[in-house]
Amino acid sequence: MLTGNASCILKAINWNMAVAQMDVYFLQPVNNMTVRIKVFKRDYSNKYHPFLVDVLVNLCDIIGRRNHSPYGKYMWNLLKRYTNFNHSCPFLGYMFARDLFIDESVVPIKLPLGYYQVSLTSFENYRDKPPLCLGTIKFYAQSMIPVTSKRNRTKPMNRTNIQDTLQTAIIPVQIGN
């Protein structure tokens, strides 16, 4: 067992955004962390099916700038901004993420409207068989038209200007082990 005292708290900021506060304590040094990023989309039968992304990213290589994967770059930008995972490997002791959220500028494509699950599974020494799983973080998000206040609306919504306001807002709904 490499981790202990893992916790996650979600706080709703408004209808369009929630932030996560995550903490974990590494009991032993993590020298070679690999993260598997998988994205799923919910269909009409409420089942999540794979959607476009299933990649492995070595976090130590990303931080050391030895890997230039586009998914690794997105992950590194989030880590730099919201966590203390900003130093090279090994990781040991208390690690955290504060006010973590994923906005639409981080997502490389415009997602179709719907519900999504982003699964981040981290491993130590992934090349070993079997690899040691450190844990899984699952983000549940919705791509939707942003909710606006009736007070701030300047003109009534009709078919022509709804296309102007169609944006992708990603809201973490739940994070779990």
From TrEMBL:
InterPro entries tied to this protein: DUF1091
Pfam families attached to this UniProt entry: DUF1091
Domain of life from the UniProt record: Eukaryota
Protein name per Swiss-Prot or TrEMBL: GL16799
Provenance organism: Drosophila persimilis (Fruit fly)
Gene that produces this protein: Dper\GL16799
